[in-house]
Amino acid sequence: MSHRVRRGSVRTAILTAVALVPLICLAGKEFVMPTPRPARTYPAHDEHPTETVAIAADPYDMADKASIFTVHYRELGFLPIFLVVTNDGDRPLQLAGMQAQLVTVDRSKLSPATEDDIDRRIARPSANTKRYPLPFPTKVKGGVSKQAREEIQNAQFAAKAVEPRSTQAGFLFFDVSGISTPLAGAHLYLTGVRDGKGNELMYFEIPLEKYLSAPAKSNPY
């Protein structure tokens, strides 16, 4: 009898361990920023050859690409776009005043979500976080794990400058809840990029249709 009890206990322990494997893997997963390539190598980009600057937008709209995150942003209504800025010039590029805007095919104009916007959506998935001209931000006091908060902070595009012959990258998150096909016919506009002398460059316009129409490739990340 005791022999059968021991066998049953061992079997239960094995089954419990197997059941916990996915949870252990999930708990141990951490966000790692993708290594950017030169901006001009991405399908959706805009290059200013005279100013030796290129900016690319790489949407993380598919499950295989979005697997780098621990937070399920698309389920929360956010579209992560990997923004890549390459400076092939001899002077630093200033990004402190850069502003981004996603303009959809129906002319809806979306600004990137802030960290607080994303926190609110995680804490209250039904919350409206769309950016209006005069937002009234509120702090989220709970409901967001430390891991999720750190991922949001580490993932967002934060570069204030790009040194000569180098590339900076990070994610912009757009609230596209209620928009069935946010990329089709959409453009990403960037203004406020300045050269080393402080002169503002002409705006960058990135047609995201180029991303959609590009040949499918395996995820390099």
Secondary structure elements and pairings:
Elements: H1 2-28, E1 45-48, E2 53-59, H2 63-66, E3 78-87, E4 93-94, E5 99-103, E6 109-110, H3 115-123, H4 146-155, E7 161-162, E8 166-175, E9 187-191, E10 204-207, H5 209-213
Antiparallel strand pairs: 1-2, 2-3, 3-8, 4-7, 5-6, 5-9, 9-10
Q: Which of globular, elongated, flat, extended, rod-shaped describes the shape?
A: globular
Biggest sheet details = 4 strands, antiparallel
Distance between the termini: 54 Å
Strand order of the largest sheet: 1-2-3-8
Question: What attributes characterize this protein structure?
Answer:
221 residues; 4-stranded antiparallel sheet; Immunoglobulin-like; alpha+beta; 5 helices; 2 domains; 10 strands
Structure in words:
The protein has 221 residues and is of the alpha+beta class. The chain has 2 domains: 1-30; 33-213, Immunoglobulin-like (Sandwich). The chain has 5 helices and 10 strands. The strands form 3 sheets. It has a 4-stranded antiparallel β-sheet with strand order 1-2-3-8, with no helix packed on it. The longest helix is centred in the first third of the chain and has 27 residues, at 2-28. The protein is globular, with a radius of gyration of 21 Å.
Quick recap:
The protein is of the alpha+beta class. The chain is built from five helices and ten strands; from the N terminus they run αββαββββααββββα. Mean pLDDT is 84; it is low at 1-8, 12-27 and 131-141.
